[in-house]
Design brief:
By secondary structure, the protein is α/β, with parallel strands linked by helices. The protein has two domains: about 80 residues, Leucine Dehydrogenase, chain A, domain 1 (Rossmann fold, 3-Layer(aba) Sandwich); about 130 residues, NAD(P)-binding Rossmann-like Domain (Rossmann fold, 3-Layer(aba) Sandwich). A hairpin with a 7-residue loop joins strand 9 and strand 10. Helix 1 packs parallel to helix 10, helix 6 crosses helix 7 and helix 6 packs across helix 10. The radius of gyration is 19 Å and the shape is globular. Bound molecules: guanine. The site of guanine has 9 residues, from strand 4 and helix 6.
C-alpha cells in the first residue's frame, strides 16, 4: 500500500507560511507582495484557475490585480498592459493566463514580461536559468512537485525518474530540475512523449514516474514496477453520473489499480493541483522580498 502524498495539506501549510512571512515583510519593510494577472477571453478552465489565484492572493495578504479582457483585445493592447505592470513598483509578479486567443502571439506576450517579475517562470531567460542551474523563477507546477518530494522526504539522488510529457509548463521544466546536481534532485531522467512509441518499456523502469500526459487513466498497474513513486499531474474531467455535476476529475494514472503497487502516490484531486497555486504565492512573495535574483 502506498504512502499518499497529501498535496492539499502540504499546499495549505505553504500558504500559511507565505501569509505569515508576508505579515513580517509588510510590518518590517513596508513591502506588500503584489500579483497582477491578465485573463483574455472566456476559456472556462482558465476562469476557474484565475479565480482561485485571486482568492489565494487575498488570503495571503497580497495586493491582487486581475484584469479580464475580451478575446477581441489586440496583441498591442496586451503588450501595453504588460509594459504598464513591468513599470509598476506595487507589482512584483505578472502572470498571463494561458492559452491566449490565436491572434495573440503567446511567446511575444511571455517575452514582454520582465524576467524579474515572471513568477510563472515561462520567460526564456528564466527557462535558461533553470537549465544551467542559476537562480530564477521556476514554473509553479514543477516547483510544487519538487516541494512535494522535499516535504515527503523522498530523495531522488541516483533514482531513475521517467517524465511523460514534454510541455513547456510541466514536462520540460520538471525534467530539467530533477537532473540538476542539487538536494532532492540529482536523478537520472528519461522524457517520454508522443514520439516514444512503446511508453511501457520506459515506465516499467521508473523508480519515480511523473505523468503529465493529459489523458485520463493512461497509466495502469501493468505500466509500473513494484515500489514506484507516482506523481500524477493529470487533471481530466470524465463523465460520472453518480456525481451532482455528472463529471469527475481524474488523473493520468489509474489510481485504484496503481496505488497498491506504489510506495508513494499523489491523488487527483488534492495532489499536485493545489501545489501550483501555493508555489505561485511563494514565487510572488520571494520576488517582493528580493530573494530570487
Ligand atoms: N495555463 C495552464 N497552466 C498555467 C500556468 O501554470 N500558468 C499560466 N499562466 N497559464 C496556465
Amino acid at each position: 500500500m502506498a504512502y499518499i502524498i497529501d498535496g492539499k495539506s502540504i499546499a495549505e501549510q505553504i500558504r500559511l507560511e507565505v501569509k505569515s512571512n508576508t505579515e513580517v515583510l509588510i510590518s518590517e519593510r513596508g513591502i506588500k507582495p503584489g500579483l497582477a494577472v491578465l485573463l483574455v477571453g472566456e476559456n472556462a478552465a482558465s476562469q476557474v484557475y484565475v479565480r482561485s489565484k485571486e482568492k489565494a492572493c487575498l488570503e495571503a495578504g497580497f495586493h491582487s490585480i486581475v484584469l479580464r479582457m475580451p478575446d477581441t483585445v489586440s496583441e498591442n493592447e496586451v503588450l501595453n498592459i504588460i509594459s504598464t505592470w513591468n513599470n509598476d513598483n506595487a507589482i512584483h509578479g505578472i502572470l498571463v493566463q494561458l492559452p491566449l486567443p490565436k491572434h495573440i502571439n503567446e511567446m511575444k506576450a511571455l517575452l514582454a514580461i520582465s524576467p524579474q517579475k515572471d513568477v510563472d517562470g515561462f520567460h526564456p531567460e528564466n527557462v535558461g536559468r533553470l537549465v544551467i542551474g542559476l537562480p530564477g523563477f521556476v514554473p509553479c507546477t514543477p516547483a510544487g512537485i519538487v516541494e512535494l518530494f522535499k516535504r515527503s522526504k523522498i530523495d531522488l539522488a541516483g533514482k531513475h525518474v521517467v517524465v511523460i510529457g514534454r510541455s513547456n509548463i510541466v514536462g520540460k521544466p520538471i525534467a530539467n530540475l530533477l537532473y540538476q546536481k542539487k538536494p532532492y534532485a540529482n536523478a537520472v531522467v528519461t522524457i517520454c512523449h508522443t514520439g516514444t512509441g512503446d511508453i511501457r518499456k520506459f515506465t516499467k523502469q521508473a523508480d519515480v514516474l511523473i505523468a503529465a500526459i493529459g489523458v485520463a487513466h493512461r497509466i495502469g498497474a501493468d505500466d509500473v514496477k513494484d515500489g514506484v513513486v507516482v506523481i500524477d499531474v493529470g487533471m481530466n474531467r470524465i463523465a460520472d453520473l453518480s456525481t451532482k455535476s455528472g463529471t469527475r476529475l481524474v488523473g493520468d494514472v489509474d489510481y485504484d489499480s496503481v496505488m497498491p503497487k506504489a510506495s508513494a502516490i499523489t491523488p487527483v484531486p488534492k495532489g499536485v493541483g493545489p501545489m501550483t497555486i501555493a508555489m505561485l504565492l511563494e514565487n510572488t512573495y520571494r520576488s517582493a522580498a528580493g530573494e530570487v535574483f
